[in-house]
Amino acid sequence: MLSKFKTIILIILFCLINVHHAVGYDLPNEFSGEVIKVIDGDTIHLESKNISKIKIRLADIDTPELNQPYGKKSKKILEMLILGKEVMIKKVGVDRYKRVIGIVMKDNLDVNHFLVINGHAWCYDYYNKRSIIKIAESIAQRKKIGIWKNQNAIPPWEWRKK
Known about the structure:
Blueprint: H1 2-26, E1 30-40, E2 43-47, E3 54-58, E4 61-62, H2 71-82, E5 86-94, E6 100-106, E7 109-110, H3 111-117, E8 122-123, H4 131-143, H5 156-161
Parallel strand pairs: 3-6
Antiparallel strand pairs: 1-2, 1-5, 2-3, 4-8, 5-6, 6-7
Helix pairs in contact: 3-4
């Protein structure tokens, strides 16, 4: 009896793992949904009629960690922009954590670009594929806005190493 129970549990776990694994890979290159949660300045949860809850990591950018200076501010900005709103995701890929990496579009606004050009995010050079994001970072830096007000601001990828 116990071994039959274990077998059933293993089958259920296997199915759940495969469903979770397949979600990011089987999605179309563009899809839309409502932003139901903002985790931090560059990660959201989206829900769609065709897709259950899915985690999205904004492509090309990195925002301060929540425990880092300006981290809560960047999250708040993203919440004001898209929380509870319909957005379009342009899928760039899927990361090792099975999150969809995407460009978030709200109407005609590229949210990823908006965050960088307004000083709420860094260009994530290691992963960035769009020159417009690097240019946006240079503009924000030159204007000394947002994260660029502090000359000693530590990029999140360096903050995480500590």
